[in-house]
Design brief:
Radius of gyration: 34 Å
Strand content: 15-25%
Number of strands: 29
Number of helices: 36
Helix content: 25-40%
Largest sheet: 8 strands, mixed
């Protein structure tokens, strides 16, 4: 073997490495494609080829002279003394099996699309004392000293492992993930100076199963300066691992080792050979493919090390799926309020294949949690009396559990305002006795473990509730398993042979995942179409939607359980015909039905084929990279500390800097999945104290519908077109004079739906008027933060005004601030709502309604990180927000031009995602519509005489475009359009408006 000064001389490191390779079975390299990283003079590469007969072995080194010497050594060993080839038992020479190439780690393989089965490496792991040296051009003419330093040191690689001198190995491992085949193995030499735990973790957190196959001790090279490691120890709790001489057993830290070495002692460190293999190679490859495309900064947060294989089997596939979603999608699509269609289909398929229950997506409604599902169901039915399993009452409103209005529950005319819940034991015989005696209209219960094995307890419950006309919700959460070998239970056994009766529904809360004990999604199963529709509408009115990524998480689990099964392999037996519905069965409450029928809710795909949604408060703009990074990092992290997910300081800073909203020691911050659910709890507080909600014309139609559904006392007061339908102190005085205990809702600074702005002075006038009459004010900032035309606006600074009014002496006056961050942080599917309360009485009242769907720790982590970027005005996120605002302004102007061209009177917006316009040219005109173009199938022509309410239906049927009518906006004559659509859909929306004009014209 030939050596020259610029090549690292083989010593204990490389000999130990080869000994580690020798500990593998002979089949380890046989007929494999192998690469050695840092081959030096090539002796290990040649030895691998000679001993194990690989198909091909590549020797890579960044030092160009090392490659030349390696080729020379290859020829010296491949030819005999006469210059003739030396053949092995397979009639091949070393020249057939070996190839040396200059390569920075595995760059040659990436550039030439080479897939490897084995990667081995004996790589330097000492930080270069002069990292700038690595930026020099590496050429044949470089000095011998510099080329030698390439073999002995490595520069900072941008990995957390850099602090331990392991950055180069970390980069080699990540590059290896991209080029190694799924069953491939990596083998690396690791100096034990950082400590064995650190060395092993380098591989484990990247998704490898690790096996230490050989270890010895070697003397520390005399020319290696470890003072950098001493500095690291001084500034961190980490301690490196050295030994005194070769015989020392007790490890010593770098500081002690440095002192011992300076005094003339010899120090050593452990040298180990690790063999590692990806535990879920295809998924891990997807994760790192995502990270290398602009998300390198979150590599340090990735942790794929798991003590429990079941946790790894659940989390790694989800991270791979999430990586794929974030990589492939520029935005999150619209999903119906009943839940993601894909997720509902997965639940139905799981029921079919594992429990032989023939369900479809329209039998499943998704809720944020089991508690939310139960409370929403009770509000939908509004029974005078409900019996609820004591295990399921914890999150119900307190007054339901303290009311004693039980007598007269069997009458046909119960009080709409009193709902009494009686807690009942889960034991079925006791539950039956209570049902028979009290005759409740709704029963919500689970089944005890000992009774869940057979169907008899469930059948008995069905019979008893049918006889007295009760609606039954049966909770199976405790008995539902997400497993490839799920245990059945009596309820599922029954449903395999019988349809679910019309008076019964099944509730299931999904909380039994292996990774996040507090991540919940729930679903309700009903085979009654009316129940499905009513529950879906109730979700939309009270919750908006269920967190989409939570649905993705559990959807991924269902998909993994279904992916390996053959489609339609099992035929399903016919189920018995359904029993007739009892004529005395309780129905949905009349008030709920009235609201659900009159509320302008989303148009579904079953009504209109491929609808274009200009009627939802969601941004479909491209999600910027910092948001994708924050979402992925929040799920990739493990063991997040409380401080990392405590978003309160960031929200406090956000509202103080944006609105000048005063914060004091009495202030309480409350968080939820969305601002809509927080608003609904405020409505309940208003009802609790006998207040009246005052909505100005031109308020969020979703909130108005929710308040009606919750049976609040509501006053709608007019606003004036001359001021863009904003509230003025004059209009406010008129209504406050006539209302007792008023609660005033104000959307601002940006108004939804008009997109106009309240100035600071206008808001001070409103608050002054409210203080005079002792009103409680709810300021909704959910649609603010995207202002584009702020000439003469000046923003908000409410602190001075509010402090002055608070000290004026009116004890009932208070201001609460409601907000959401989805629109202004460009997070798409990642929703986050906040509520700021400062009056102790109101805070106490709010806590009477505990059933709030709170944001998961991953959401709080991501939001905290994004708010931090925004507060620091960090580049890419702020650039994206600026571009987003410019695009909203551009689209607002374009939409105005098209609407005016089509005969609409437009109120030009100044911020946010929506604007309003009046269809003046269309009113009272009769239009003939053939719905086949948008809804498919039905060719019957329909005549519609247009007004400001039915024009929404006409446009949807004629073109597939969904807007909000004046029924939603509350402004007579004015419809609402949102503009934050995906670019191609926005263009289609404009075309639809032009198309509708031509249809009316014809």
């Amino acid at each position: 073997m030939m050596l020259i000064p610029s090549i690292f001389t083989p010593e204990d490191w490389s000999f130990t490495f080869y000994e580690g390779l020798n500990r593998h079975p002979d089949s380890i390299f046989k007929d494999r494609t192998v690469a050695e990283l840092g081959c030096g003079n090539g002796w290990i590469t040649i030895a691998i080829a000679e001993k194990w007969l690989p198909l091909k072995v590549y020797g890579f080194d960044i030092n160009p002279r090392a490659i030349r010497i390696s080729w020379i050594n290859l020829y010296l060993n491949a030819l005999d003394e006469n210059g003739q080839p030396v053949y092995d038992v397979e009639k091949k020479t070393l020249l057939d099996r070996v190839e040396f190439q200059e390569s920075d780690l595995l760059s040659y393989c990436k550039d030439h699309d080479i897939q490897l089965e084995r990667i081995v490496g004996c790589i330097p792991q000492i930080l270069n004392p002069n990292p700038d040296a690595m930026s020099k051009m590496i050429t044949e003419n470089a000095s011998e000293e510099f080329l030698y330093s390439l073999s002995n040191y490595c520069a900072l690689q941008g990995f957390v492992e850099d602090q331990f001198g392991l950055g180069l190995i970390a980069r080699a491992v990540e590059e290896g993930i991209a080029v190694i085949k799924p069953a491939g193995i990596m083998i690396f030499n690791m100096g034990g100076r950082p400590g064995q735990g650190v060395c092993k973790r380098l591989f484990e957190r990247r998704g490898f199963l690790v096996n230490k196959i050989w270890q010895t001790k070697v003397l520390q090279a005399a020319d290696t300066d470890i003072s950098a490691l001493v500095e690291i120890e001084k500034n961190s709790p980490h301690r490196f691992e050295f030994f005194m001489g070769l015989s020392g057993d007790q490890p010593i830290c770098a500081r002690t080792a440095w002192a011992y070495g300076e005094a003339g002692g010899r120090i050593s460190h452990a040298l180990s050979v690790y063999s590692c293999q990806l535990r879920q190679p295809n998924q891990v490859k997807k994760i790192f493919e995502f990270l290398k495309n602009g998300f390198q900064e979150i590599r340090s947060s990735l942790d794929l090390s798991f003590e429990d294989d079941s946790v790894a089997d659940e989390k790694i596939p989800f991270l791979a799926y999430l990586a794929g979603v974030l990589k492939e999608r520029s935005f999150f699509p619209y999903e119906p309020p009943a839940g993601s269609k894909r997720f509902r289909n997965l639940i139905a398929d799981f029921m079919k294949k594992y429990h032989h229950i023939p369900l479809n997506a329209d039998n499943v409604v998704v809720f944020p949690s089991r508690a939310v599902a139960i409370e929403n169901a009770l509000r939908l039915f509004s029974p005078r009396l409900a019996i609820v399993d004591e295990h399921l009452t914890r999150h119900l409103p307190k007054q339901w559990l303290t009311s004693l209005a039980i007598k007269g529950t069997e009458t046909d005319n119960p009080s709409e305002d009193v709902l009494t819940v009686i807690e009942a034991p889960r034991q079925s015989d006791l539950m039956m006795e209570l049902i028979k005696k009290l005759k409740p209209q709704v029963v919500i219960t689970g089944i005890g473990n000992y009774e869940a094995v057979t169907s008899s307890a469930f059948v008995h419950l069905l019979d008893v509730t049918r006889e007295i006309g009760s609606q039954l919700f049966l909770d199976i959460s405790d008995h539902f398993e997400l497993s490839s070998l799920p245990g059945s239970n009596g309820v599922l056994k029954y449903l395999a042979g019988n349809p679910l009766p019309s008076h019964a529904a099944v509730v299931c809360g999904l909380v039994k995942n292996q990774v996040y004990s507090d991540l919940e999604v729930a679903f309700v199963i009903s085979e009654e179409e009316a129940m499905f529709k009513a529950l879906s509408k109730t979700v939309e009115v009270l919750e908006g939607t269920t967190a989409l990524i939570s649905q993705y998480y559990y959807g991924c689990l269902f998909h993994e359980l279904l992916a390996f099964q053959l489609a339609d392999r099992h035929s399903h037996k016919e189920r018995d015909s359904q029993k007739a519905k009892s004529p005395d069965m309780i129905g949905f409450s009349s008030s709920a039905i009235s609201v659900l029928n009159s509320a302008e809710l989303s148009i579904s795909e079953t009504q209109i084929a491929s609808p274009i949604h200009m009627d939802v408060d969601q941004s479909f703009f491209a999600i910027p990279s910092p948001v994708k990074a924050a979402i992925f990092e929040s799920y990739a992290r493990q063991n997040m500390s409380e401080s990392e997910i405590d978003v309160t300081p960031n929200i406090k800073q956000y509202i103080e800097s944006n609105y000048g909203f005063p914060i004091d020691s009495n202030t309480e911050f409350l968080f939820a999945d969305c601002s809509q659910s927080l608003f609904n709890k405020l409505v309940l507080c208003c009802i609790l104290e006998g207040g009246t909600l005052c909505f100005p014309s031109g308020s969020n139609g979703n909130y108005v519908s929710a308040a009606k559904f919750l049976k609040a006392n509501i006053v709608n007061f007019p606003t004036d077109s001359e001021v863009g339908f904003k509230v003025t102190d004059k209009t406010l005085i008129k209504v406050l004079k006539t209302v007792k205990k008023p609660w005033v809702y104000i959307c601002g600074p940006t108004v939804n739906p008009t997109g106009l702005l309240y100035s600071n002075k206008e808001m001070e006038n409103i608050l002054t008027t409210c203080a005079k009459y002792g009103a409680r004010v709810v300021i909704d900032t959910s649609f603010s933060g995207l202002e584009f035309n702020f000439e003469g606006w000046g923003g908000w600074d409410l602190a001075g005004c509010m402090e002055k009014l608070s000290s004026s002496g009116n004890s009932t006056f208070c201001v609460s601030m409601l907000g959401g961050l989805s629109l202004k942080m460009l997070t798409g599917a990642l929703k986050f709502g906040f509520l700021v309360l400062s009056q102790p009485h109101l805070i106490d009242a709010f806590h009477n309604f505990p059933g709030l769907s709170k944001p998961h720790s991953t959401v709080r982590y991501a939001i905290k990180k994004l708010l931090g970027l925004r507060q620091r005005k960090a580049g890419e996120l702020m650039d994206a927000i600026v571009e987003h605002i410019k695009e909203l302004e551009s689209r607002s102007k374009r939409l105005k031009e098209i609407l005016e061209k089509c005969g609409w009177d437009v109120l030009q917006s100044r911020g946010g995602v929506s604007m309003v316009a009046k269809p003046s040219a269309y009113l009272n005109k009769t239009v003939k519509i053939n719905p086949s173009s948008s809804s498919g199938g039905n060719t019957a022509t329909e005549e519609i005489k247009l007004n400001d309410s039915n024009i929404r239906e006409a446009i949807a049927k004629a073109t597939g475009l969904c807007i909000n009518s004046s029924s939603w906006t509350g402004i007579p004559g004015y419809c609402r359009f949102t503009v934050a659509l995906e670019e191609s859909e926005f263009e289609q929306a404009l075309d639809c408006l032009l198309k509708f004009k031509s249809i009316v014209g014809n």
